[in-house]
Amino acid sequence: MLSDCIYNGECDGSAHCVRVSDIVGSCECNTGYVSTDSLQCNYAQKSELVTFLLSFFVGYLGADWFYLADGDAGYIVAGVFKLIITGGFGIWWLIDWIRILANAFPDGNGVELEQM
């Protein structure tokens, strides 16, 4: 939950104060940040554009999965498997493009990508 504020200095570095009334405001996350684990704006989202470009140019090597893994073993294994089978002969590669553009491809922590 985001905290109350009166001015920007009361919000952490990845949030800003949005005034609700003359007396009180609410800290809101800056673009590209989300709140996780009940901590305010503590997680920098992975970029949808970077993910798509990686997938488009070197996705057959699993680069998109490695970028999104953020330490998640499942994503790393998927990236290695995609590398071994050269992008699923184009089919897996194409499916990943569609998932990225449809914003249906979260990062390794389950957080959605920052929109283009």
TrEMBL record:
The domain of life is Eukaryota
Identify the residues that the record assigns to the TM2 domain, covering every copy: 45-98
Question: InterPro entries this protein is in?
Answer: TM2, TM2D1-3-like
**Entry GO CC:** membrane
Q: Please verify whether the record's keywords include Transmembrane.
A: yes
**Pfam families in the record:** TM2
Q: What stretches pass through the bilayer?
A: 49-68, 74-95
- Give the bilayer topology: Multi-pass membrane protein
Localization annotation = Membrane
The alphabetized UniProt keywords are:
Glycoprotein, Membrane, Signal, Transmembrane, Transmembrane helix
Q: Which family does it belong to?
A: Belongs to the TM2 family.
Under what name is this protein listed?
Answer: TM2 domain-containing protein
